[in-house]
Write a structure and sequence with these properties.
This protein is α/β, with parallel strands linked by helices and 543 residues long. It is 30% helix and 25% strand. The chain has 4 domains: 183 residues, FAD/NAD(P)-binding domain (3-Layer(bba) Sandwich); 140 residues, 3-Layer(bba) Sandwich (FAD/NAD(P)-binding domain); 56 residues, Alpha-Beta Plaits (2-Layer Sandwich); 142 residues, Rossmann fold (3-Layer(aba) Sandwich). α3 packs parallel to α4 and α10 packs parallel to α12.
Length: 543
């Protein structure tokens, strides 16, 4: 008879905080409110939604106005302009946030947080040795001037610098092409686009590129930076790839490209919310388990410009995905979780803070009387804290120490003739799936292979490894996710450190360290799993 897991019901706050009232933030707020949740939408600007929008054809502005009216007309959305988040604490379903604005600080209780910071454009004039002036302007300055007085460019020769100071990006290209198209609609205006690679692999970009060309825009593809000067008048000198000679152009205006990146507010936001910062200052690491909108902390989601450089439709999809994740988390205000998901014995705990420091999900906090608590909602059951705890004070559900030792002892004692017994600890997110794939596809596997499932390689305790060898295993393999692709972010690192420590212990007592192997794989790499295990068998057999 299968023993049923005892469940625990936890009440959740169902209000949601959305940080950033640009287009993505307003879309997220409207989608979340449509699911019946109250939303607090904050923005540091004096007017919510006042962030600059790249818009020369009216499409962006029209979509923006529809969203603004939806937000303003919703009884479930509270808009706080001129407001920022000063602090945050708590766990998913029970976050406390402190909002400051109008010389006042307000505390709110929310169940989830969505960060929707905007992208920031930075002119790259210095890369061309130029200073911004009346004749050398940034892409954002050009857009503002075109929106205000397009006739000012009539009869001008305008040169655009694109993809020369940085790798091309579809969003950057779209902005330039829309500006070029606007230029070509003016009388006696000529547009030149000096570019590196043009990234047109995005919906509508190739059509826009061709339309600009057909209207008269001149594209000059370069393999190196041209010589650009603004002393005594503008000049651009370059090696023409068609004419095979040096050519000089004297435009009236040079438009320099802009680097589009993360807002600097992200760093403070990450520290406040205890979420990982990815490349280029965005609030999401390059980890497949985080896509599309998750962070390392349950209940905190990132959308649009807070996580990537995205065009409008991609940011809108993020907002919709965040609303779905919020609904999955908060439901009707209660959630049932296994009572033994993560159990902490305060009698064994010495309050050393090891678990607090190593938890990759921010699931451990301290009560007012200095007692540690593991949030069963925030905890993702990886077991890193349990295996790092020096007092074994933490147990993880079905992967508790007693159950793991029993499984390891049984597996190590089982023999398959003369074949060496290999105990492979397999992360259930990668190695275990790869093992099943190898078996299902009939790939060669050691006859004495015994797989032991773990929730994450970070749960593989040195005690488990040494117990396997002591109980008769000839070799042990710790199979983890690739670095940067671990669902628990750091589980693979902890596993590699423990495997190395176990190898050092074997050397100290005069046993070959090669009897322990650490390897990484992915769930679809059955052939690699087969190769690694067969190599281990050959090594143990002395072949």
């Amino acid at each position: 008879m299968t023993q049923q897991t005892q469940m625990e019901t936890i009440n959740l706050a169902t209000d949601v905080l959305v940080v950033g009232a640009g287009m993505t933030g307003m879309k997220a707020a409207s989608e979340i409110a449509a699911n019946g949740y109250k939303v607090v939408l904050i923005d540091e600007g004096a007017e919510a939604g006042a962030a600059a929008i790249v818009d020369l054809d009216g499409v962006e502005q029209a979509a923006f106005e529809v969203l603004r009216k939806t937000v303003e007309g919703s009884e479930l959305i509270e808009v706080l302009s001129g407001t920022c988040m000063d602090g945050a604490a708590g766990m998913p379903g029970d976050f406390k946030v402190w909002l400051s604005g109008n010389d006042d600080i307000v505390e709110k209780s929310v169940g989830a947080i969505v960060v929707a910071s905007e992208l920031v454009a930075c002119p790259m004039n210095e890369a061309f040795g130029l200073e911004l002036s009346d004749t050398v302007i940034s892409q954002s300055q050009l857009e503002a001037k075109l929106a205000d007085n397009p006739a000012a460019f009539a009869g001008k020769t305008v040169a655009f610098m694109l993809g020369l100071a940085q790798d091309g990006h579809p969003l950057v290209l779209e902005r330039v092409l829309k500006s070029v198209l606007a230029m070509e609609s003016l009388d006696e205006t000529s547009a030149y686009v000096f570019s590196g690679d043009l990234k047109v692999a995005e919906d509508g970009l190739e059509r826009l590129y061709l339309e600009c060309r057909d209207k008269g825009a001149m594209y000059v593809k370069l393999t190196e930076m041209p010589a650009v000067s603004q002393e005594g008048g503008l000049s651009i000198t370059y090696e023409d790839p068609v004419l095979q000679r040096s050519v000089a152009l004297t435009p009236d205006i040079i438009v320099v490209e802009e680097a589009i990146g993360a807002d600097q507010v992200n760093a403070a936001m990450a520290e406040m919310l205890k979420i990982d910062v990815g490349s280029m200052g965005f609030l999401q690491t390059d980890n497949v388990h985080r896509y599309p909108v998750a962070t390392n902390r349950e209940g905190i989601y990132v959308v649009g410009g807070s996580r990537r450089v995205k065009k409008r439709y991609g940011a809108i999809m993020d907002a919709e995905n965040a609303a779905l994740r919020v609904r999955d988390l908060l439901g009707n205000g209660t959630v049932s979780v296994p009572a033994n998901k993560a159990v902490l014995d305060t009698g064994k705990c010495t309050f050393c803070l090891t678990c607090f420091r190593c938890c990759p999900h921010g699931a451990i906090y301290w009560t007012a009387d200095n007692k540690p608590v593991i949030s069963k909602i925030a905890c993702q059951g990886c077991g890193i804290c349990a295996s790092e705890c020096p007092m074994d004070a933490i147990q993880i559900g079905e992967f508790n120490d007693a159950a793991m030792i029993e499984t390891v002892t049984r597996s190590a004692a089982e023999k398959s003739g003369d074949a060496p017994t290999i105990v492979a600890f397999c992360c259930q997110n990668s190695g275990l799936e790869a093992a099943r794939m190898a078996a299902d596809f009939g790939m060669p596997l050691p006859k004495g292979l015994k797989t032991v499932a773990v929730p994450c390689a970070g749960k593989v305790d040195i005690d488990y490894v040494m117990r396997a060898l002591a109980e008769g295993a000839d070799g042990v393999v710790v199979m983890a996710c690739h670095n940067g692709n671990c669902k628990s972010e750091k589980g693979s690192l902890y596993a590699s450190w423990r495997a190395a420590n176990a190898q050092q212990t074997l050397e100290t007592i005069g046993v070959e360290k090669e009897r322990i192997c650490f390897a990484t794989t992915a769930s679809n790499m059955g052939s690699d799993f087969s190769r690694i295990l067969m190599e281990m068998e050959a090594k143990l057999s002395g072949k």
